[in-house]
């Protein structure tokens, strides 16, 4: 997004002093922000944090009694500098534009963030903040890749430059986990006690995984600290959900016209929001249940349902739609060929893997997903959806493929998506020969494997780091080779291929039933 200083100065920039002058239909913080303390330090202040956790807190803060639950944001990456500059200028306020499918819009200013630390400028300040007695929860939205999970073994992946650096230099951290470990050490030594580490990322068992990764790294650094973490820190699992596209120039212009204020980094999101959390907080927590979140004793069925249906569904549409030449999710799912493929994928390859969900109507959930994807007011780009597929697909899609293999079930719909991922990584062109933008930390490596497909059809799968032993599974490779042949045949048409794979799937399912 464009973060260059705004040229027009006739409208004021968003900050605390302007709130009282905003049009009356804008929902502004009604609470005294000067009374808030930062009980939560959040690492990874992306659009999702600002539309989700910070928005829940904004609602909660409107009633008295939660003043200790303000947020201090932390940006670990050099690219977070612009965000810091904007938030500081705006007194950490930002606009949230909530777009309902029927065109209704809720316009809000969110006030729950009260501070932001840009780590590259002062690492110690971050460690001190995490170790401060006001800090009760350290929450994370650091994306799937930020967890350093080895895709094949599920263990902590020590084979990473930043991790190697952190092991050599624990007082000069680079990764989120090393900051947390440094702060927990300070708290252990000072006798202050632990904080809760709360993951807000789309990883199944995100709390348990965070615990496993942090204790593995801590074990290398200081075994007694690792044990203290095991015994004292809570890591609640949670399912988080709200579709939040990347902010566009149109979003900035909308806020300027509607709010009559210049916000350089507003957030737009869908109206749907869900947060299901295991109630395991060692140092207290906000009453998020008063503002729509749900506390449960076991979040497993909810997170599996969401990640395997919504997130995987996004990747299915994203990769196949990119090859067709679509640009957004709503555009892709409005094409009946894509909508039918998605629904069949959800019904036939994921639903049989899901546990019983008391009180959840799974068919209704899937209908709602398709409606949410089709929300014409949310322009969620396929570039965002396909970004970092190398970190997402193992958790969203390959997990279902492996489970189906174990159960002796067919996965041909998902296999076409993996073959499409190979084609996408190889060519970076859609079928009209226009360039596709690929954002993936592993893009070069993925392209290198994919580009050998012409001489070795299974080449992409030979990346064992991602695919484990899939290349040795003859049923998988049979379907995969067929998909590769169709995708790479001259003048191939992705919609025709999808229709063919789908009819074949229906034939297989009919045979399974009879
Ligand atoms: C998306 C998610 O990144 C992705 O691929 O599937 O960001 C998705 O929009 C959110 O998880 C919705 O809750």
What would you say this structure looks like, in words?
The chain has 514 residues and is an alpha/beta fold. It has 20 helices and eleven strands. The strands form three sheets. A five-stranded parallel sheet has the order 5-2-1-6-7, sandwiched between helices. A three-stranded mixed sheet has the order 4-3-9, with helices on both faces. The site of D-mannonic acid has 8 residues, from helix 10.
Brief digest:
The chain is of the alpha/beta class.
List keywords for this structure.
globular, single chain, alpha/beta, N-(1-d-carboxylethyl)-l-norvaline Dehydrogenase, domain 2, binds D-mannonic acid, Rossmann fold, disordered N terminus
List the helices and strands and how they pair.
Layout: E1 40-43, H1 47-51, H2 53-61, E2 71-75, H3 81-89, E3 94-99, E4 105-110, E5 113-118, H4 123-130, E6 137-140, H5 161-168, H6 176-190, E7 196-199, H7 206-221, H8 223-232, E8 238-241, H9 249-259, E9 267-270, E10 274-278, E11 294-296, H10 300-324, H11 329-333, H12 336-350, H13 362-373, H14 382-386, H15 389-406, H16 412-427, H17 443-450, H18 464-467, H19 474-488, H20 494-513
Parallel strand pairs: 1-2, 1-6, 2-5, 3-9, 6-7, 10-11
Antiparallel strand pairs: 3-4, 8-10
This protein binds D-mannonic acid (CS2).
């Amino acid at each position: 997004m464009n973060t260059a200083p705004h040229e027009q100065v006739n409208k004021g920039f968003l900050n605390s002093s302007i709130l009282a002058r905003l049009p009356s239909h804008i929902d502004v913080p009604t609470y005294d922000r000067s009374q808030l303390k930062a009980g939560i330090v959040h690492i990874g202040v992306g659009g999702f944090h600002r539309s989700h956790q910070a928005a829940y807190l904004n609602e909660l803060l409107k009633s008295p009694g939660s003043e200790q639950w303000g947020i201090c944001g932390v940006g670990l990456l050099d690219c977070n500098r612009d965000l810091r500059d904007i938030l500081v200028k705006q007194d950490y306020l930002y606009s949230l534009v909530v777009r309902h499918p029927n065109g209704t819009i809720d316009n809000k200013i969110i006030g729950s963030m009260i501070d932001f630390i840009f780590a590259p400028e002062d690492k110690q300040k971050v460690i001190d903040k995490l170790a401060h007695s006001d800090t009760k929860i350290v929450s994370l939205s650091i994306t799937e890749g930020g967890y350093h999970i080895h895709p094949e073994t599920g263990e902590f992946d020590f084979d990473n430059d930043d991790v190697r650096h952190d092991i050599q230099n624990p007082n000069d951290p680079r990764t989120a986990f090393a900051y947390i470990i440094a702060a927990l050490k300070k708290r252990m030594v000072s006798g202050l006690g632990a904080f809760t580490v709360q993951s807000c990322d789309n990883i199944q068992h995100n709390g348990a995984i965070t615990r496993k990764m942090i204790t593995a790294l801590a074990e290398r650094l200081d075994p007694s600290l690792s044990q203290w973490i095991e015994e004292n820190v809570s890591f609640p699992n949670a399912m988080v959900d709200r579709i939040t596209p990347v902010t566009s120039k149109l979003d900035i212009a909308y806020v300027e016209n509607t709010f009559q204020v210049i916000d350089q980094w507003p957030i737009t999101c869908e109206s749907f929001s869900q947060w299901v959390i295991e109630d395991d907080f060692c140092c207290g927590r906000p009453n998020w249940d008063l503002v729509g979140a749900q506390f449960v004793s076991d979040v497993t069925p909810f997170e599996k349902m969401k990640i395997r249906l919504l997130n995987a569904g996004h990747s299915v549409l994203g990769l196949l739609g990119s090859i067709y030449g679509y640009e957004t999710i709503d555009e892709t799912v409005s094409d009946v060929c894509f909508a039918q493929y998605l629904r069949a994928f959800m019904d036939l390859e994921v639903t049989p893997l899901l546990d019983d969900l008391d009180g959840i109507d799974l068919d209704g959930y899937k209908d709602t997903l398709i409606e949410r994807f089709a929300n014409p007011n949310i322009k969620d780009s396929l570039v965002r959806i396909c970004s970092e597929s190398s970190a997402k697909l193992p958790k969203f899609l390959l997990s279902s493929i492996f489970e189906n293999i174990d159960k002796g079930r067919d996965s041909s719909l998902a296999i076409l998506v993996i073959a499409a991922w190979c084609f996408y990584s190889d060519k970076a062109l859609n079928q009209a020969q226009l360039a596709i933008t690929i954002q993936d930390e592993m893009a070069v490596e993925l392209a290198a494997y994919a580009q050998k497909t012409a001489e070795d059809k299974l080449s992409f799968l030979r990346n064992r780091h991602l695919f484990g032993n899939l290349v040795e599974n003859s049923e998988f490779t049979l379907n995969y080779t067929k998909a590769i042949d169709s995708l790479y045949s001259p003048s191939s048409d992705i919609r025709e291929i999808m229709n063919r794979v789908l009819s074949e799937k229906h034939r297989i399912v009919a045979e399974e039933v009879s």
